[in-house]
Amino acid sequence: MDKIPILRFGHFLLVTIQVDLYDRLALNLESDLIQMVSKTQARGVLIDISALSIVDSFMGRIIGNIAGMSKIMDAQTVVVGMQPAVAITLIELGLELKGVYTALNVEKGMSLLQSKISLPDEDLDNIE
Amino acid sequence: MDLFKALSKKRSRLLELWMQYQLADISLREDLMENEELRAQSEELLDAFLKAVTDKNVENVDDPTYEPIIEILSGISISRARQGYSPKETGNYVFSLRDAILQVWQAEFSNDLAVLFAATLKLNKLFDNLGIITFETFIKGREEVILRQTDEISEISTPVIRVWDNILALPIIGTLDSSRTQIVMENLLQQIVDTGSSIAILDISGVPAVDSLVAQHLLKTVAATRLMGAECIISGIRPEIAQTVVHLGIDLSNIITKATLASALKQAYNMLQLEVRKVQK
Amino acid sequence: MIVVLNKESIPIDKEQDVVLFRNRVKEYTIKIGMGVVNQTKLITAASELVRNILKYAGKGTVLIEIISSGRQNGIRLVFSDKGPGISDVPLAMKDGFSTGKSLGLGLPGARRLVNEFDIKSTVGKGTTVTILKWKNG
């Protein structure tokens, strides 16, 4: 697998990371995702890491980068589905993912995004 | 003449004497073990003893012939530790066998004092060693009890309660050390995932004191909860705790703190945009 | 007294090795029955250190050992490389310090995630980092 699929949901993009990424793949994801944000004018990015058993500082940096880059392109990033063991480890490691929103699952992440960005009403209808 | 071998012929007399000594002990715990059971246990140990000990190996407890004795003795000692016997009672059990042996020898060999003296010295030495083994395994048995209880305490003392849809509460009772914090954190985060709750209330009214280390553990728990995407409220801040927190210069300003569980719950309702109202009749 | 029950040496020379190596460590943690949080802590620490090897030395080896001490079992990992070495170890152990372009959490972060941490480095000769995580530590 050379690319992580990025799904488009109306104004949002959804990325589900299913495998432990090696560095090249993670860097590819970062640039692909930013390209997609620009191309689709997305307002929000959901990164589902529920299948990830390890997030080290490199992976944390990629997530932080994506959030930071998206933000200056007017899109908010929400990381969803972090495993408890991963959360405990990241805190101990000293990586708090500042500036990144988090949610328990995709559904909660989606409503968090909707509350963070004000979409015109007709657009909201189109999402359904 | 092998005084130890000679004992085999006196088995029933020995057992009888040993039982007498044991039963004469005023501290005997009939509540913990039936006399029948005690007799069976003593017989087993005595048989192993008579079979193994000879004049040749008596000075070497590490000899393989002693393995059955040590095994039985350890088993008895560990089970006595679990049953709640005191070390004295367990010690008396072993040492009274020596008294029984000495009495048998005295009756048989009092005409040859030199032989009796030499054998008695060896016997004492042997029982010193057996006594040490008894105490060692006894303490090991106690340690196992303590370890098991420690595990139980840390498990029962951190229940996670689902107080409302989307709201979990976790009353912490007792001191928060780092291993406790780890268990608390794991339980809490797992429950958050399992129930999909977005708010967790950590009630510390049962925590006797908050020092900078405990505060650090609390801060970690809150940070981990937030990383998962849930919010954490700390309640049960008693006046003394507020005082120490400020005096120690601990910064809790990034955390939602409430004095009582009730006000934390109110805050949680607010965050979920819920309202509790009196029914209008 | 620490007894080594099992050992294996894994060479590290390309970035794909990181994920393979992590999986190998995971197999060992499962073998001794380590809980999922301690597993994650150990593997994350290992991941940080193995990345350091790739970043600063280019290649190296990791020795994985299952060890036993009294009633405890654990895993010990020894990361060694023949890279440039670290001139100021105490400084490198500080949070937020990095000579490369990273967050500078690797070494100090890894230390917080394990029970025992030891680092030896000689400039021009290389670096050896040893970490140990007990099953219930």
Automatic annotation (TrEMBL), chain A:
Residues 1-113 form the STAS domain. PROSITE patterns: STAS. SUPFAM superfamilies: SpoIIaa-like. PANTHER family: RSBT ANTAGONIST PROTEIN RSBS, RSBT ANTAGONIST PROTEIN RSBS-RELATED. This is STAS domain-containing protein. It comes from Deminuibacter soli.
Automatic annotation (TrEMBL), chain B:
This is STAS domain-containing protein. CDD domains: STAS_RsbR_RsbS_like (cd07041). The keyword Chloroplast does not apply. The keyword Phosphoprotein applies. Keywords: Phosphoprotein. It comes from Deminuibacter soli. PANTHER family: RSBT ANTAGONIST PROTEIN RSBS-RELATED, RSBT CO-ANTAGONIST PROTEIN RSBRC. Residues 157-268 form the STAS domain. It comes from the Bacteria.
TrEMBL record, chain C:
InterPro entries: HATPase_C_sf, HATPase_dom. Residues 37-137 form the Histidine kinase/HSP90-like ATPase domain. SUPFAM superfamilies: ATPase domain of HSP90 chaperone/DNA topoisomerase II/histidine kinase. This is Anti-sigma regulatory factor.
